[in-house]
Amino acid sequence: MEVIRNLGDKAGLEFSHTRSDIISIDFHLHDAYEIYYLISGDVNYFVENKIYELKQGDVIITNKYEIHKPSFKSNKTYERAFIQFDDAIPVMYGSGAFDLLQCFNGRRKGERNKIEFDAVRRQEFLELMEKLEHTGKNKNPADAILRNTYFVQLLVLLNRAFLSSSVDAVEQKGISARLFPILDHINENLQGDLSLESIEQQFFINRHYLTRLFKKNTGMNLHQYVIYKRLARSKELLARGLSVTEACYSSGFNDYSNFYRLFKRIIGTAPGEYKKRNAY
């Protein structure tokens, strides 16, 4: 993978621009908001239980509770830029009249993740991304201030596009129609039995066929997907103030030790520490 730019700072803002051949990518579940911009590649993008078919120049936004990943349909070179950030800058510059995180938090998970721009706004977006990349290369205080202002302008642009459209640009091309009710079932029954045997009986589908179908269409096995969904749910519950034990069992885990180990490995911190930093 060629890392063209990887620029981060202490203000909770990181800009990355990378190019690579096709690689295997698991679902992401990180403690940050993300703006993803596809420069080149033949990509379907999964967010929660939804699939977006992308073309060059498309933008995907995700919040810190949405699992997401790209899936590749051909060997075309994959190039993308993305911004990961916490809520420090949006909260500092936002107001009660205009919430800079509206497009990230003001919708249901897995819905309206694809931002549609008209020609004028798309050009504005590209110019702001270029300015963010340029100012991120310099470490002097003046460029840091400029970078923050460009980032705030980018958030305003995203929110205006989001608020001007209520349509969810979800595509199902190239994805087996048999998977969509199964994905919905998983999303609605995280506390229930989501074993292959249970899904096989619920949907009258052979478990071995389901395993191959899920892997072919998502690039990930079904068990991993369920784990990431349950971890995302546990993050939400911890942020709401539930105890670690309550978050564990309420998100569908039956074994506390396994939950703790998976949370620390995938999220990067212990669930108790996550709660201290994020509970509101």
TrEMBL record:
GO terms for molecular function: DNA-binding transcription factor activity; sequence-specific DNA binding. InterPro entries: AraC-bd, Homeodomain-like_sf, HTH-like, HTH_AraC, HTH_AraC-typ_CS, RmlC-like_jellyroll. Keywords: DNA-binding, Transcription, Transcription regulation. The keyword Transcription applies. Residues 180-277 form the HTH araC/xylS-type domain. It holds the Pfam family HTH_18. Gene3D superfamilies: Homeodomain-like, Jelly Rolls. PROSITE patterns: HTH_ARAC_FAMILY_1, HTH_ARAC_FAMILY_2. This is AraC-type DNA-binding domain-containing protein.
